[in-house]
Write a structure and sequence with these properties.
- It is a single chain.
- By secondary structure, the chain is an alpha/beta fold.
- It folds into 2 domains: 11-53, no CATH class; 69-271, P-loop containing nucleotide triphosphate hydrolases (Rossmann fold), CATH 3.40.50.
- The protein is built from 9 helices and 9 strands.
- Helix 1 crosses helix 9.
- Mean pLDDT is 79; it is low at 1-63 and 278-285.
């Protein structure tokens, strides 16, 4: 269901298997030692001599045995919903089976928690940021176990508007909760699940907030000051700088079509790469 690298590798067929040509006819043997070091892959992550047998079968480059997990992050008004929809159409046209979801939400429980978390409170007492973090992670846990992990394991590609990076940016950098505590909560919620690619839509805070209609403001837009949102934006950029292999930062202040082209270019580098997607969900220890 997934698109391989353009052109692919010519190969020889043995039964129902397609073996890349660089294995040669020696692939008929039960075991084959390839002495040329290759780039990292899920069967031999450290490189060096590689033993390939009939079990497990050889996986063609670019055809992942599970779906891709792609998240789109960013501060308020960055255009996440619009770009998730555009990217979904692009990937579906490329032949991928795509499921769109969001945080908080995506499940019956998650949508109920979304209503609680985003509704304007008009309360004298602000919601404690640790309470926010716990509720976001409760919604995340349900989404991962009910939707995301089963979909990935069945070969579907997941596009998710916001994921764990938003909690680090908002409740961590924005509200001041220790990142170590938030990462502990995140791991409990996700069992270490991490996106294959995170698109960070970045734009100045004032520009993003100005895009929001007055009647469409959430609690975070209506009850938190500009300084908070600046810290959130800085937090997203700090997360991206610390993990450049996962993040692609896109200037979301440009026209919508230009932003979409930048996103598809980043995604193409992922889904058309010659490195197979790992057989198990990518995790952090």
């Amino acid at each position: 269901m997934h698109q391989g690298g353009k052109g692919g590798h010519p190969g020889v067929s043995i039964g129902s298997r397609n073996l890349p040509s660089w294995l040669g006819l020696a692939g008929v043997a039960a075991r084959l030692v390839v002495h040329t070091p290759r780039p990292r892959n899920w069967m031999n992550p450290v490189g060096g001599p590689e033993v390939v047998g009939y079990t497990p079968g050889v996986t063609r480059p670019g055809v992942p045995p599970r779906g891709w997990f792609i998240t789109i992050e960013g501060p308020e008004g960055a255009g996440k919903t619009t770009q998730v929809a555009a990217l979904s159409r692009y990937l579906a046209d490329a032949g991928l089976d795509v499921h769109i979801t969001r945080e908080p939400g995506g499940t019956w429980l998650g949508e109920r928690l979304r209503d609680v978390l985003l509704a304007r409170t008009d309360s004298v007492a602000a919601t404690d940021p640790v309470t926010d973090a716990l509720l976001f992670n409760a919604a995340r846990r349900q989404l991962v176990t009910e939707v995301i992990r089963p979909a990935l394991e069945s070969g579907r590609t997941i596009l998710c508007a916001r994921f764990a990076d938003s909690t680090l940016a908002y409740q961590g950098y924005g509200a001041g909760i220790a990142l170590e505590l938030l990462r502990t909560l995140e791991h409990a919620a996700t069992d270490g699940l991490e996106p294959d690619l995170t698109i960070l839509l970045d734009l100045p805070v004032e520009d993003g907030l100005a895009r929001k209609a007055p009647g469409d403001l959430t609690r975070f837009e209506a009850e938190f000051d500009v300084a908070f949102h600046r810290r959130v934006r800085d937090g997203f950029l700090a997360l991206a700088a610390a993990d450049p292999g996962r993040f692609a930062v896109v200037d979301a202040s440009r026209p919508v079509d230009d932003v979409a082209l930048a996103i598809t270019a980043a995604v193409d580098r992922l889904v058309h790469s010659d490195e197979p997607n790992p057989a198990v969900v990518r995790t952090l220890g």
